[in-house]
Structure formats: C-alpha cells, structure tokens
Amino acid sequence: MAQPPSPRIPTHGAVDLSALKARPTRPGEIPEPPARSAPPLAAGSALGVGPEHTGGADAGAAGHGGNPWVVEVTEENFGTEVMTTSMTVPVVIDFWAGWCQPCKQLAPIMEKLALEYEGRFLLATIDTDANQRLAQEIGIQSLPTILAVVGQQPVPLFQGALPEAQVRQYIEELLRVAAMNGVAGRAAPRGSAPAAAATSAEPVVPHADAYEAMVAGNLDEAEAKYAAVLADRPADRDAAEGLARVQLLQRVQGVDPDVALKTANERPADLAAVRLAADVEVASGIPEAGFTRLVEAIRVSGGDDRDALREHLLSLFAVLGADDPRVITARRALASALF
User: Fold this and answer.
1) Residue positions annotated with a catalytic role
2) What is the CATH number assigned to the segment(s) 1-203?
3) Where do the CATH 3.40.30.10 domains begin and end in the chain?
4) Which terminus of the chain is more solvent-facing, meaning fewer CB atoms within 10 Å of its CB: N or C?
5) What is the pTM of this model?
6) For residue 108, what are the CA distances in angstroms to 65, 94, 99, 243?
7) Per-position pLDDT tens, the chain of length 339
8) Which residues of the chain form CATH 1.25.40?
9) Spatial separation of the C-alpha atoms in residues 125 and 111, rounded to whole Å
10) Angle between helices 237-252 and 271-283 (to 10 degrees)
11) Cβ(280)–Cβ(257) under 8 Å?
C-alpha cells in the first residue's frame, strides 16, 4: 500500500501552520517512516473484528469506553486537542468511519496501545463521516489512515489495518524521535481511568535526570549521567541504551544530512563517511538503511577496518535496543557478512 500523502493540517483560525510542509528529514527531526504494505486480511483473521469506535457528546472528555488516553476529535476541538497538545505530547490520529471494516479491526489495537503507553501519546479519533470537511482539508484518501502530529508538524504513519506488532513498531519509532525533538511529555488521563490504571503508580522513566538532560539538548550532561550509572551497574540496559542515543546525537550534531549521505554514496571506501552516513540514517528514523550500509561495508572490509565498522554497528544496535525486530534482522545480516 502506498504511503499516505503528506497531510495538510488545517489551522481553523487557532494555530498558524503556514510554515508546515513536507521537507527532507534531518538528524533528530521527525521522519516519515518507510512505506510498509498492509498484508491482506483474510476472513477469520486472527485480528478478528473489534468493536466499532464509540463515543458521543462527552467522548472527548472521558475517552472511548473509559480509555483515559483516547479523545474524540471534531473540527471544533481540533486546535486544542491535537495542535496544542502536540507541543508537549505526540498525538496519533485515527481516521475512521462506521462502515469501514478494516477500521473496526484496527481500532482495538490502537486503543490497547494507548492504554498500555499510559499517556506517552494521545490517541485522537476522527469520524470522517461526521467531519468530512476536516478529512478533506487534511487530505485523507482511504480508511483507516493513521498519522501523528508532533510539535504541530504532521507525520504520516500508515494506512490499513496492520498487525499489532507492526503498529507498535511505528509507535516506538514515533516516540523515540519525538523525544529527540523535546516532545516527551505525558498526556493527562481523560475522565476516570480504569481501575488498573487508576491504582497503578505513575510510570517511572529510567534514569529520568539523564533522560531529561538529553531531551533538553544538554548532551554532555546526559552522557555523564548515563556513564555514571553504567560505572556502578555495567549491566543496566536502560542506561546503556540511553548512553548510545546520546552519543549518536553528539555525532550528528551540526551535520548536514544531505552532504553526509552524498559523500558516503560517492566515496564508499571512505569508512569515516560511511559511519557518519549510517549515524544520520539512524538518527533520522530510517535505521534499516544505516544498518544495511554498515553491513555492506563490513562485507568488503577486513582487519582493523572491519572491527571498527562492527563496533560502530553494535553501538547503533544499542540505540534501538536488542529486542527491536530491525536489530534482530540486522544481526543476522551481520553474522552472514562476518562468517
């Protein structure tokens, strides 16, 4: 399925978004994730057919079905619920209609993830039948369509009913890059939270002081704080991943991504350029490209050069974490290149 077109987020007189337009991704900026095709959904699919989107007059305040991190959005509240909120919390918008069967399959997945992430993103649902002008202004052409808004910047995500694992991958990538842009707040629950959520403690961000320093752009401070944790607890996975992210941001700070990629493509034997280009690709939200670039360089290198490239690739694996499916795939490719 083709990637959704770049949306035209309307202002509705509340927010000036005239500067927003599609533009090349730079390191640390919100990327458009790579196009992914939704697999065909056969009858009797394991996804099943979930409940229809529900709501009503008070759905915007209380969330759907009591979900405290879901809000029904209309033309009237788009400016406040989406645009204003997106300055501090990523907003993921689900465009749906009551007649759309794939929408009914995707809806429970989106709402489950919104509940699981406990306000790290706000899920906004827009009934395109009830808000036809809004859907037309944004450029919605098929349903379901999922896009995000971060810092009032539209981020096309995907179309169609994807499996939960694939949707989760989009959400994780969105949150990672949103944090690099300083949009890492937590949405306040709408209405009354379900019993499980209401009684649970507020989730704790691992090594919050180091994380906050990174989000604020104080990279040297964040590096020192993560390094101090690892000095005491070398097996602390959260600190290792945090340190890898900070060091990646340090390496791409001030780098022109177009120049970095052009240089590496024109001079593949320049291994410093290859490593920098891979950094740019990972920081820009396309880690598969960076991993592939380094694996191919490793395949044709030897000796100390090969070791340096391998160590660099492992440091980029740490940015996403060992469990990320893209890292798992790249590790297999690395093993093939080495052996």
Assistant:
1) 100, 103
2) 3.40.30.10
3) 1-203
4) C
5) 0.51
6) 11, 11, 16, 35
7) 334 444 444 433 232 222 222 333 444 443 444 333 332 222 222 222 233 344 443 344 334 557 899 999 998 999 888 988 888 889 999 999 999 999 999 999 999 999 998 889 999 999 999 999 999 888 898 999 999 998 888 888 999 999 999 999 899 888 887 877 767 778 888 764 443 333 333 445 678 888 888 877 888 999 999 999 999 988 888 888 889 989 998 998 888 989 999 999 999 999 999 999 999 998 887 889 999 999 999 999 989 999 999 999 999 998 888 778 888 899 999 998 887
8) 208-338
9) 10
10) 110
11) yes
Phi, psi of 96 (to 5 degrees): -145, 170
Q: How many CB atoms lie within 10 A of CB 191?
A: 15
Fold of 208-338: 1.25.40
Q: Output the CA–CA distances (angstroms, integers) from residue 337 to 11, 80, 115, 298, 301, in the order listed.
A: 50, 51, 41, 7, 10
